[in-house]
Amino acid sequence: NAGVTQTPKFQVLKTGQSMTLQCAQDMNHNSMYWYRQDPGMGLRLIYYSASEGTTDKGEVPNGYNVSRLNKREFSLRLESAAPSQTSVYFCASSESFFQPQHFGDGTRLSIL
Amino acid sequence: GENVEQHPSTLSVQEGDSAVIKCTYSDSASNYFPWYKQELGKGPQLIIDIRSNVGEKKDQRIAVTLNKTAKHFSLHITETQPEDSAVYFCAASIGNDMRFGAGTRLTVKP
Q1: What's chain B's average pLDDT?
Q2: Which one, A4, A29, A58, A62, has the greatest CB density within 10 A?
Q3: What is the pLDDT of residues B42-88, one digit of tens each?
């Protein structure tokens, strides 16, 4: 009964470092999403994947890349981290396209 | 693109009272309106949603109403309980564009 699992839960990086945030869902959902959440703002979509093998840019894609490894897994990569990418990152999945139902508990990322 | 405004940003009510959170959207073609509850340290949880062909939907103590003409929708929580305390987000979507409101922090005082 895991739902959406994100790893790691916390991470501190230095400017210029790279890292990959992992996300996996066990509900056999086709659609998956990556959001960032900043104080005083709603969630903003970074990238989404409508189905296995497809990915598309969302509202704020600059500085990020994604991989839909298989139906279960959707990873988010920061190639060269910047302080402006300090945020909480959420992965979500859904059965219906663009109706995110289940969210992970987030990755809290700080970039110094 | 879509733009969603949410009010109020904070709301404090006494246990047992009702709470109402309102959102307005800009794109009249938006057709899906979900509401999420986010507890501290957790991800958002979908609590109720409504589609543009429905004016009202209810699920136990929560209800959502949609006024397409005025382009606004509201979340109503009746008989509030301390465990309703959380941040609530509305969203509006059309196709592959979904935008979220900035959130309402609801505090229910025992």
Answers
A1: 94
A2: A4
A3: 999 999 999 988 899 999 999 999 999 999 999 999 999 999 999 99
Instruction: List residues of A whose CB lies inside 8 A of any B CB.
Output: 4, 40-45, 48, 50, 56, 59, 90, 92, 97-106
Picking from B4, B93, B101, the nearest residue to A98 by CB comes out as B93
Reported residue count of chain B is: 110
**CB of B54 closer than 8 Å to CB of B44:** no
Cα–Cα dist A42/A108, whole Å: 16
In degrees, to the nearest 5, what angle opens at C-alpha B20 toward C-alphas B64 and A46?
65
Residue type, A4: V
Closest chain A CA to residue B42: A105
The ranges of chain A with pLDDT < 70 are 1
Percent pLDDT > 70 in chain B is 99
Instruction: Measure the CA–CA gap between A68 and A54, rounded to whole angstroms.
Output: 7
Judge: B46–A56 Cβ closer than 8 Å, yes or no: no
